[in-house]
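// run 5 | inverse folding | seed 20
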């Protein structure tokens, strides 16, 4: 690895707002890992009510730009900017200010910090704003929800094409996303690099010592939006009840579909078996996974870049069930590291859940194999080393132009 110390400006709409916040936790791990290797790292992210505008955390200077009064700063973080945030009237009202604030904040950060390169997480909005600064090279990392924006029509793809074409390097979190982006933007992007996100494997591995709940717990952890298929999970849970399989279902997450999902659980007659929780600090998630017999991600269609929830669950000793959505099969190899249920098929999902809930030998075999895979593929050292090499290659190429 070259010895040159770099100045890297990380730009994102999602970054932890407080200790243990899961929002953008993987972005923070990359930034902090790069800083720990002796490089200067500054992060530009939106402000959120109750957060500081400037602070230094674990060697990373964090600059949060304001874009309105607290009541209007609801565009980022909550519900997923690319999926549902703008369905909120308050967030929609704050969106123009968000765009102006983002542009102004990035200009100020470039003038002050003078970075060697920009690392933009998600092509929109971060990559789009980075592409406006033609004198600086930038790297785009697509995490999934931004790739789904490309499905919304020719106008969005026309907006994205120059952003990807000008990028010095494009990375994604799964092979599925790499193929998807290359296909959607044919000719605009070449050689997309797959880069795993760094996970605190030791932290989640400790969750394996947590005592399992009785009756066995099924855990869903994620946003409560239609694409995540939580309604399919509730119908599968009702089918488990009909089959006489003992379980408890914990829904851990937030989002606009919460009320309708609670109503569906009541209609299905499973309210006593379902508990609901808001997001918990990331440091508590190892215990949540560890207490669960099965963790499930029932995403529909292609709306899942990878499914890091399932990686974390495997590390913490929980068996996993996913769907064929997006990059999930890269983590959940059917009958090897977990089980795959058919997309949108609640009866098949119930069958796969029942297999893991009732067959201890199968559950132990898949969990052991899954944990070994996760430990090998998602260690922080390997992931951060990959990004460092990309940064050096991009900076060197730019300096020789």
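// decoded
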């Amino acid at each position: 690895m070259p010895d040159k110390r770099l100045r890297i400006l990380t730009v994102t709409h999602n970054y932890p707002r407080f200790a243990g916040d899961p929002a953008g936790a993987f972005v923070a791990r990359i930034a902090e890992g790069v800083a720990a290797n002796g490089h200067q790292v500054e992060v530009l992210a939106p402000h959120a009510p109750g957060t500081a505008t400037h602070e230094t955390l674990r060697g990373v200077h964090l600059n949060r730009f304001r874009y309105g009064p607290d009541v209007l700063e609801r565009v980022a973080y909550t519900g997923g900017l690319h999926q549902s945030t703008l369905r909120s009237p308050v967030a929609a009202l704050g969106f123009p200010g968000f765009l102006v604030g983002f542009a102004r904040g990035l200009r100020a950060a470039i003038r002050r910090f003078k970075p060697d390169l920009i690392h933009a997480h998600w092509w929109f909005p971060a990559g789009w704003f980075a592409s406006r600064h033609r004198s600086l090279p930038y790297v785009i990392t697509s995490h999934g929800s931004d790739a789904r924006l490309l499905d919304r029509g020719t106008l969005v793809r026309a907006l994205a094409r120059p952003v990807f074409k000008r990028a010095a390097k494009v990375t994604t979190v799964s092979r599925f996303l790499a193929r998807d982006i290359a296909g959607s933007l044919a000719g605009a992007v070449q050689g997309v690099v797959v880069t795993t996100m760094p996970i605190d494997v030791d932290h989640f591995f400790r969750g394996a010592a947590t005592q399992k709940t009785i009756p066995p717990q099924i855990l869903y952890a994620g946003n409560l939006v239609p694409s995540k298929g939580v309604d399919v999970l509730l119908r599968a849970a009702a089918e488990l009840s009909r089959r006489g399989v003992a379980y408890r279902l914990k829904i851990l997450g937030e989002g606009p579909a919460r009320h309708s999902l609670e109503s569906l659980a009541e209609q299905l007659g499973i309210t006593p078996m379902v508990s609901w929780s808001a997001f918990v600090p990331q440091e508590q998630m190892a215990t949540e996974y560890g207490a669960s017999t099965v963790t499930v991600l029932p995403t529909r269609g292609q709306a899942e870049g990878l499914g890091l929830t399932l990686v974390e669950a495997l590390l913490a000793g929980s068996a996993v069930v996913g769907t064929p959505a997006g990059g999930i099969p890269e983590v959940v190899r059917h009958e090897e590291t977990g089980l795959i249920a058919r997309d949108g098929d609640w009866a098949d999902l119930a069958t796969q859940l029942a297999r893991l809930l009732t067959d201890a030998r199968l559950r132990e075999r898949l969990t052991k194999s899954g944990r070994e895979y996760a430990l090998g593929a998602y260690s922080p050292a390997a992931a951060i080393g990959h990004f460092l090499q990309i940064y050096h290659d991009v900076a060197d190429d730019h300096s020789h132009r």
